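Job type: complex structure
Entries:
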Amino acid sequence: MARRELEEINAGSMADIAFLLLIFFIVTTTMDLEAGIPKTLPMKVEVDPNIELPEVRMRDVFSININSQDQLLVEGKTVDIEGLEELLYKFYTGNMYRYEADPTQVEYLPKERSQVLAELAAAKVTLAENEESILAKSAVSKLEKTLKVIDVMPDGKFLQISEQMAIQVKKQANTSYGIYIAVINSIGKVVKQIKNERSKELFNGLSYDDLDPEIPSDQMKIDVLDIMVPDRTLEPPITQ
Amino acid sequence: MSKFRKKGKKGQPPVNTAALPDIVFMLLFFFMVATRPKEKEPTNLEMEIPESVIAIELNKDDETDYIWAGYPLDGGANAVVEVFLDDQLEVDYMSKIGPWKLSQKPADMEVFDVSTILKIDDDVNMKTVANIKDALSDPKVKGYRIIYSTKNKLGDR
């Protein structure tokens, strides 16, 4: 059979079709990625009135009050946002390297490997007796976290921030969202700065920002730093 | 002289446009890969998103819901805050957030896995924000993951 020569397909309009699609995609999509501050809201729990809550010492709580005119009262002083960052930095680092160097700031408690190991063994026994107990579970996990940090400390000792430590952000009904985010931003900035400093000391000058959570050894370092510099934020219900 | 005259029509040869579709397709694929669809958004809200230096960029394939809150553009001095769930205005937003969150959830995911992006104008009062957070953290809804949408402030790291 004689082969018929193929006729050439006219592709002249292909460009038009592609342009049409291109323009459709340019119009309906956007280039900029969404950015934001992720938070996990606290779970609502019914507190048994019979449970005795531990007493909170004011030195362990960093209190921030924002009034309806967007003014800040931080630890009893009226300050601006830079002042807040300064005070928060002092709050964290006051006793971070030397036990009770500044008794007005949050307390750091000295931890040693042998003592933590003994406490952990005792806590595990308690948990084995009562496997449902939330308190026993959290005691074990806290001690395991402490141990994780001690493992990377060069001398096996670790000054750990008080368990009661918290940053309290009080707002009023007419406080603006802008100033609230500015405060959250400042807290995040200071915490990150301290994590950077600690990371450089412990991991040969590597900064916290450069750690990549995809790499397991880096993820371990991130975990350690998150335990060392926690950012527990409390948000009481707003007042009128 | 007619010996040297060219045969047929005079003029330049046509430009070869055969590669044009290739170029356009390349651009098209680039846009398809590098962009994401615009989210449904309300059109008449005043939106001044606050700035931050600790914002984290989101993965564009993550499953998310949007809540918008702001003052209407033509509201004047006595305007009240309007809350939109996606592009739907809800006056009684506190009771609508729960059912909306539950109905938006893909079948193979938990509500906890779908973060809610809060796009809130920086003049909105904290009362509204607290109400939204309250409705989300309802034990029946469990929408605990939120993201305060912020603009990246550069140069202040």
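Summary: The two ends of chain A are 93 Å apart (CA to CA). The first helix of chain A runs from residue 14 to 28.
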